[in-house]
Design a protein that fits this description.
The complex is a heterodimer of chains A (416) and B (224). Chain A is of the alpha+beta class and 416 residues long. Chain A folds into two domains: 196 residues, no CATH class; 207 residues, no CATH class. Chain A is 56% helix and 15% strand. A six-stranded mixed β-barrel of chain A has the order 2-3-7-4-6-5. The two termini of chain A are 32 Å apart. In chain B, α3 crosses α4, α3 runs parallel beside α5 and α4 packs across α5. A six-stranded mixed beta sheet of chain B has the order 6-7-8-3-9-10, sandwiched between helices. By secondary structure, chain B is α/β, with parallel strands linked by helices. Chain B starts with a strand and ends with a strand. Chain B has a single domain, classed as Rossmann fold (3-Layer(aba) Sandwich). Classes of the chains: A alpha+beta (416), B alpha/beta (224). The interface between A and B is medium-sized, with 26 and 31 residues.
Chain lengths: 416, 224
């Protein structure tokens, strides 16, 4: 404790002698810290926005479209169309334990939906209750998603994408209202919460009209699934799960399990992984740029420390005469450099925190800026910045300190 | 066995092409409880000799044996230990740390020696009391007179009970009254059993010291 107190006063005494220089250097360190934090937190904000957009369609899912066989198999010719039925969903769930959840949909473009005198054409899907979680069809407060009972009783209930609800009801409460879908009356049971969706097939979810799969079949006469979705229990098992789906479906519909065109699969786990890696690369790049800014400030610290070592040469000699080991002298100067670094870092953290808070308050409507306008400071960013800062301050102190520790005491006592 | 033995000790300084011989074949023994004055004109090698005695500098050749240990072979860390435990320095310009109080200045060698806080406190107060400055413990050097500063420096030199006290012109920056009182303390320490070596210009001071070593051009001589 006594040591720290003593070092602090040493620092203050140096500060008083090089006030302007040390202040400027602390500001330089602060600026370097600000730039690292800003770059990293904008990167983090971008990453989170992109990831949110990427996973708004559903996280860890594989989307399957039945296709055409490209290989002849067991006496059957190639070019055969594969048709999947709703009962295949339970078959797959039963046969493949690696799969956690399945879902499927009938779908149709240009379905009329009318409320009062407001009429529009929409993409309509008939889905299973599992879509709530698989495809993030999350209802807003006061509403619900389609459940098993709706399916069993073929209820005429509709779940609306929030854009559709907005245009149809113009701010009016939608839940409980009667809408006409292709002239058949439906009760609205829920409206989807808004989401930024960057991945999609057949249009964004917020423009859709969603009804129970069984009701859909009754109205439009669909029998075969347009889309089938599954989610493996653990993302790492996705390749295995995909092979299993080919195997189980192949044996049922008689196609070669290696025929990848019989079923088209969109593996979002893979694309999300690639995205994550690209974003990590961007983060590292930004960290390096920020680090370089801080490195320049570190040169300033080293410069101050060299001046301090020269100015305190005689004092170093006195301390050595009193029995200070070279190690002690070394640490005394390194700690002083760290103190400059920590002061600058503290100011930098403070400034960056304020700037980020202010930016987050600015409402941004622009589509492109939405991705940049939400900087996020995470614990990781703070820790990484602190580590870079400490390393640079340490190095800035180390070389001047080593010079101090190597001073010949007899010569330094003669130094004026 | 003598406390200090110097055998055929040489010190050369090389600066570029010019090499200066600061000390030539010095043979000096110092016994315990001796009080020695080193005198000689400037440039005669007094300070160099003192630096070597104080383990601040190494001889170019020859042996320096301090308290049985051959110092010329030791590594920097061991030399620091020896300076800390066996040697007390008193300088002409005091060399106190300007931002630290008298108390803290005296405490410094105890910190370097790894003494615990409780023992440090009683030891520092004992030392300040001995030089008559117990009431000045919290004063900064700038708030003390020259004589008081030198007394703080003496207290600091005595901190770890050194085997030998080396003083380089301890009265050089003091008026004769303050200088006299400093020499008084040295004589007292000598009576109490300390070994002291003092560099001085002052003939009168040297005359009061039992043994005088005269240096001229790096050689020990009988008369100046």
């Amino acid at each position: 404790m006594r040591h720290l107190w003593y070092l602090l006063r040493l620092f203050i005494s140096d500060f008083n002698k090089q006030r302007k220089k040390i202040t400027l250097t602390i500001m330089a360190i602060a600026w370097g810290t600000v730039s690292i934090i800003m770059l990293l937190s904008f990167g983090e904000g971008l990453k989170r926005q992109l990831e949110a957009g990427n996973t708004a369609m559903g996280k860890g899912i594989v989307i399957v479209w039945p296709g055409q066989t490209s290989k002849s198999y067991k006496g059957l010719p190639h070019g055969r169309r594969i048709w999947m039925k709703p009962e295949d969903m339970s078959l797959i769930k039963q046969r493949i334990p690696a799969i956690e959840e399945v879902g499927g949909e009938f779908s149709r473009w240009g379905v009329d939906i009318r409320y009062g005198e407001e009429l529009m054409g929409r993409h309509c899907t008939g889905v299973t209750p599992s879509y709530e979680n698989l495809r993030y069809h999350i209802p807003m407060q006061g509403g619900r998603f389609i459940n098993q009972k709706d399916l069993d009783e073929k209820r005429r209930v509709a779940f609306l994408g929030n854009e559709t609800a907005e245009k149809l009801f113009k701010g009016e409460e939608a839940v409980g209202k009667l809408v006409y879908i292709n002239r058949v009356p439906f009760t609205v049971i829920g409206v989807m919460i808004p989401k930024e969706q960057t991945n999609m097939y057949s249009g964004p979810d917020n423009e859709k009209v969603v009804i129970p799969m069984t009701t859909f079949g009754t109205i439009f006469g669909d029998v075969y699934l347009d889309v089938f979705i599954f989610k493996p229990k653990v993302s790492e098992d996705v390749e295995f799960a995909k092979r299993e789906v080919y195997r189980v479906m192949g044996s049922k519909y008689k196609f070669d399990p290696n025929d990848e065109r019989a079923l088209h699969m969109w593996d979002t786990i893979e694309t999300q992984q690639i995205m994550t890696n690209v974003l990590l690369g961007i983060q590292i790049f930004m960290g390096i740029i920020g680090g370089l800014t801080l490195l320049v400030a570190g040169v300033g610290v080293a410069n101050i420390m060299y001046v301090t070592v020269r100015r305190r040469t005689r004092e170093i000699g006195v301390k050595m005469a009193m029995g200070a080991k070279p190690r002690y002298i070394l640490w005394e100067f390194i700690l002083e450099a760290l103190m400059i670094g920590v002061s600058g870092g503290f100011v930098g953290f403070l400034i960056a925190g304020i700037i980020i808070r202010v930016i987050r308050q600015i409402p941004i409507e622009d589509e492109a800026l939405k991705f940049l306008g939400k900087p996020v400071v995470s614990v990781e960013i703070a820790v990484i910045t602190a580590i870079i800062l400490t390393i640079i301050a340490f190095l800035a102190g180390f070389f001047p300190s080593r010079r101090a520790a190597k001073i010949n005491p007899a010569e330094s006592l003669r130094y004026e | 066995m003598p406390l200090i033995q110097m055998q055929e000790l040489n010190k050369k300084y090389n600066s570029g092409k010019v090499s200066v011989e600061a000390l030539k074949d010095i043979n000096v023994d110092v016994e315990e409880n001796e009080f020695i004055a080193i005198v000689g004109p400037s440039g005669s090698g007094k300070s160099t000799l003192m630096n070597i005695m104080g383990c601040l500098d190494a001889p170019s050749s020859g042996d320096y044996i301090l308290d049985g240990a051959k110092v010329s072979d030791l590594k920097p860390n061991r030399l620091a230990d020896i300076r800390n435990r066996k040697i007390g320095f008193v300088f002409q310009n005091f060399n106190l740390l300007p931002y630290a109080s008298a108390y803290e200045n005296v405490e410094l060698p105890l910190i370097f020696g790894g003494i615990g806080p409780k023992r440090r406190k009683s030891r520092v107060m004992e030392l300040l009391d001995r030089v008559g400055l117990a009431d000045r413990a919290e004063h900064k050097p700038t708030e003390l007179s020259g004589g008081e500063m030198q007394r703080v420096a003496i207290a600091r030199a005595l901190a770890n009970n050194p085997a030998i006290i080396l003083a380089d012109e301890p009265t050089g920056n003091l008026d004769s009254v303050a200088g006299g009182s400093i020499m008084e303390i040295f004589h007292e320490l000598h009576r109490d059993g300390a070994t002291l070596i003092v560099i001085t210009h002052d003939r009168q001071i040297a005359n009061n010291i039992p043994r005088v070593i005269k240096l001229k051009d790096g050689l020990v001589v009988d008369s100046l």
